[in-house]
Predict the structure.
Amino acid sequence: MTLSYRIAMPGQVWSVAVPDPSGPLYVTSYGASPLETVVTMLDLSGSVVWQRTYAGTGRPQSRLSDDGTLWVAYPMQAGRVLEGVLPDGTTHHRVVPESQVGEELSAFVLLEDGFCIAWASTSRLLRMSEGEQPASSQPRVARYTWEGDCVWSTPVVLGAVSHPGVIGMGVETGRQVRALRPWIPQEVAADRWEPLLVSGDRVAASFTDERSGIGSTCFLDLADGSIVSATPPAPAGRKAIAGPGEFLIGSQGYGAFTTSLHGRDGSATARWASHGAMVVDGRGVICGPELENRLPSRSLFRRLAPGNTLSDGPPLTGYYTSYPAMDREGTTVFWRDGKLIAVDRGLDAHELFAMNDDRKVMGRTLLLGDGRVVVSLDSEVLAFQTSLGPLAEGPWPCGDANLLGNPVLR
C-alpha cells in the first residue's frame, strides 16, 4: 500500500466529498481565518482544478448533490445564503431562505426537491463579526423548496436539561458535591456531530446546551414537520442512519457511554454499552471503532450484536479517529493514532500505513475506485492506494452519506 499524495489546504478541512468513485474531490475548509471558507476542487492526482473563497462564513458547510452541484452555506447582508457551485466552479443558483435575527444556518441537507435546514443560535464568533447580535433563544427545523420557499418550520424546545453525571457545588447543593438540578440552557446550538440526518420520512435533528454539551435528538416527520418524539437529555455523541426511518444515537461523557437504535416512532428498540463511529452495512450489521473519552485507550473495534450484546474486535491505541468507510467484503478502514487501519469481517486488524502524526482534527474516510482511500487530517488531504474493494452498499456511511457528504437515505 502506498501514499499517493498529501495536499495542504488553506485551513482546517471540514468536508471532503466526491460525485462518484472516480472523483473529482470537493474540499471545503477554513481560509486564512476562521471567518473565511474556501472550496477547492482536486482531481484524483491531487492537482488543484479551481478554488473559491467565501467571506464571513464562520463554520464551513457544504453538501454535494446527485447532479454534481456543490451547495455551500454562508452568511451575507441579505441573510443566510445557500449557493450552488457547478463542476466548473461557476455559480449555478443562490437561495436565501428566510431567517430570524440571531439564528444561524447550523446544518442542512439536500432533499430531492429542496433543502432541510436546522437553525440555531448564531455562534459567538459570527455574532462578534456582525456587531454583537443577540443569540436566538429557540432552535428550529425547516424544509424549503429549491427556490427557498418554506414548506414548513417547526420550533424545537429543548427545555430544562440535566444528567446524573453533571455534578457541582454551591448554595443550591448545600455546599456539597452533588448532581445539579435541571437547568434551562442560556444558549442552544446544533450538535457538533451529525446534527441533521434524514432517513425515509423521518428527520433526526440534534441540539445541545452550548455550555454543557447535554442535548437531545428530536425526530420529525419529513412531510409536514410535526414532532414525532425526542430523546431524553443526555451527553451528545456520534449518530448514524441505521435504515429507513431508523437512527443510531450515541451518548458519551459525564459517565455515559452508550448507543441506542431508534425506530420510526422515535422509541429505542436496542441499546448497547458502547459508543463510536459506526458503519451499517447492507445486512444491517453495525460496527466501528469505539471513541471513549479517556487515555490511555481502552477502546476496541466493536460489533453491535442482537440482544444488546457486543462482539469484541481488536484493541485500538490512540484517541482521535476519522469516520470509517466499509468495502463490499466487510472490511472497515479508518485513520487512528498515525495509522491507516483496516478491520476485516472476521474482526482482524491490518495496518495499511503508518507515519509519525499526532494531529487531533480528522474528517471522514472516503473509499473511491480502484481501492483509493482519502482521509482529511487537519489542513491536509491524504490519498492512499490500497487493495480494498468497492464501497459497500448500506445505510451508513455508504451511498449518499459517504461519497456525497449528504446524510440522507431515500
